[in-house]
Amino acid sequence: MRLFHTSDWHLGQSLHGQERDFEHACFLDWLLGQLRLRQPDALLIAGDIFDTVNPPVKAQERLYDFIVQAHEQQPKLDIVMIAGNHDSGSRIELPAALMRRLRTHALGRVHWLDEGQLDAERLLIPLTNGRGKVAAWCLALPFLRPAEVTGPQLGDDYLQGITQVHQQLIGAAQKKRKKDQALIAISHAHMAGGAVSEDSERSLIIGNAEALPAKLFDKSISYVALGHLHKPQKVNRESRIRYSGSPIPLSFAEINYPHQVLEVELDGSELVSVEPRPVPRAVALQRVGPAPLGELLEQLAELPVIDLLEDPNRQPWLEVRVHLDEPQPDLRQQIEAALHGKAVRLIRISAEYAGAGRGEDDDLAFVELSQMTPQDLFSRAWEQAYGNPVDEQALADFALLLQDVQLEEEQP
Q1: What radius of gyration, in Å, describes the C-alpha atoms of the chain?
Q2: What is the rounded CA–CA span in Å between residue 288 and residue 261?
Q3: Do the beta carbons of residue 192 and residue 213 sit within 8 Å?
Q4: Residue 346, Cβ neighbours under 10 Å: how many?
Q5: pLDDT tens digits, one per residue of 64-115
Q6: CATH code for 2-278?
Q7: CA pair distance 275, 4, nearest whole angstrom
Q8: Cα separation of 379 and 385, whole Å?
Q9: Which of 9, 54, 215, 230 could form a disulfide with 246 if both were Cys (CB 3.0 to 4.6 A apart)?
Q10: What is the spatial distance between Cα 320 and Cα 326, in angstroms, rounded to a whole number?
Q11: How many Cα atoms occupy the beta-carbon half-sphere of 299 within 13 Å?
Q12: 241: how many CB neighbours lie within 10 A of its CB?
């Protein structure tokens, strides 16, 4: 059996105010071509399909057009997609009944029956091989928010609630599987030991319970398709537990990441191989600097000029980093003048001042809000109000409040 594993598409994302729709369109066209070429039996999309809980209409159209095209070219292809922490679980599930007619299964939330019993049946998806026989069962685990795994019948411990979900779902899958049928898990979570990118993944922290142990997925699981971390990686050096990573760089911190879809081969319940399929980068991310202003302007002057025969949508996104001794009121004008006629699109200027550090003027320092998480803003506000760093318990309480707000935003 052959699977494709991908995640963290973040459809509808903008980078410093610039839409990424062209890049996402190129990726989805490429993915359709790979599906046609490699003929996998199933496609697993491990969450953060959209960038926000209320994605733009164009982003939703991208997703549903892709699903229709994939089904039209491969009517036997099974697609399983789960909600990530950026997604609205209810929005992901809203068209589920229609998508099932396209062999697409959309899971956004976990449901509970009486007395703390997980509704495992809806999270177990049969995956068929080329002969139409069930070759594997997919255990679909959307991002688990505290409100979904804690409560009067479940207890108040977030990690214990997550553990219950995994134990009950794996137990139900083991009862359902037949000889030589594989168990494949798809999950959106931060696993302990995973490498986080500098400014892309939204924190999942609830107190100290952010990173989940890999032991949640016991050896009966042949492969675990993970989403959330944008850098492709194994978990605990296990070939069977992997993050596919994002298909495009979602911040300048990800310039050097390899972007890929993973092709997974199984023979019965045995994992045979996992091979990366590199995603072509439709638009490069480019940095110039850090350097003093004079040197920086010389570097910008050496950039290639616009080729009128090339698609302007493919011009690189440019970040400029400059060292300054003092503020330059006309900094942007100087940089834009140096870039006139160049085949790049400037989207960010980052200025660093000589000798800059913490001091009495810190409150006046420029802060780019788009680069700060809600936790960062809360920590800064706390320190300004009380004169000392925020304590761990206050951060944990804030994280719970933030989760409640995000759940309210999810309602379509």
Answers
A1: 23
A2: 29
A3: yes
A4: 19
A5: 999 999 999 999 999 999 999 999 999 999 998 999 999 999 999 998 887 7
A6: 3.60.21.10
A7: 10
A8: 10
A9: 230
A10: 17
A11: 16
A12: 21
User: Letter for the amino acid at 143?
Assistant: F
HEC profile for 250-268?
A: CCHHHCCCCCEEEEEEEEC
Q: Which residue has the tokens 């990118």?
A: 197
Amino acid symbol at 73:
Q
Look up the pTM and report it: 0.83
Extract the tokens encoding 166. Answer: 């995994």
How far is the C-alpha of 184 from the C-alpha of 141, rounded, in Å?
Answer: 11
Peptide bond into 327 cis (omega under 30): no
**Spatial separation of the C-alpha atoms in residues 392 and 265, rounded to whole Å:** 44
Cα→Cα distances 115→111, 169, 344, Å: 12, 16, 59
**Interatomic CA distance for residues 355 and 59, integer angstroms:** 44
Domain boundaries, the chain: 2-278, 285-407
For the segment 327-386, what is each residue's pLDDT rounded down to a tens digit? 788 899 999 999 999 999 999 998 887 655 444 333 334 445 555 677 878 887 877 776
In whole angstroms, give the CA distance from residue 164 to residue 380. 36
| Residue 360: CA count within 13 A, CB half-sphere | 0
Pairing of strands 345-353, 317-324: parallel
Cβ density class 197-233: b for 16+ within 10 Å, e for less = beebbbebbbeebbbbebebbeeebbbbbbbbbbbbb
Give the total residue count for the chain.
412
> How is residue 290 written in tokens?
């850090």
